[in-house]
Design brief:
The chain is α+β, with helices and mostly antiparallel strands. It starts with a helix and ends with a helix. Helices cover 36% and strands 43% of the residues.
Length: 138
């Protein structure tokens, strides 16, 4: 397991817990996408703009994401060219989740988070919200 990738993931997760928007903005690559799929095969793609807007809204309401990262387990890492993937399992609010984070390495450091592939139990509410937002925007 690539420990530098594990440590970078811990930094990212802790920035999320702290609602450190400056650190999160610097962590997400400009081309960041989160591709979420659920057990029924529903798919939602979120961008850096979506994530940052959500973080800002939560912060403005005095809320944050999660209480700790104690439920996180890193299962595997792999490094290829200037990219690295880390597979993470988590039981957040009693619901299991499986994640594959893809990092971009620059100057020997895991610089930005390029992709997040997430397997969720059910995305129905997120699909509805995303479709409503797209109708309003379009």
């Amino acid at each position: 397991m690539d420990q530098s990738l594990v440590e970078r993931m811990r930094e990212y997760l802790n920035a999320g817990l702290a609602m450190d928007l400056e650190a999160l903005d610097a962590t997400y690559d400009p081309d960041f996408e989160n591709i979420r799929v659920d057990e029924a095969g529903q798919v939602v793609t979120l961008t850096k703009a979506h994530f940052m807007a959500r973080f800002r809204a939560l912060r403005d309401q005095g809320l944050r994401i999660g209480e700790s990262i104690d439920d996180v387990r890193f299962l595997a890492t792999t490094v290829y060219d200037d990219h690295g993937s880390i597979i993470m399992h988590r039981h957040q609010d009693g619901v299991p989740g499986l994640y594959n984070f893809v990092w971009r390495r620059k100057d020997g450091r895991w610089a930005t988070l390029l992709r997040e592939f997430t397997v969720d139990k059910d995305l129905t509410d997120l699909v509805r919200t995303t479709e409503s937002a797209n109708r309003l925007a379009g």
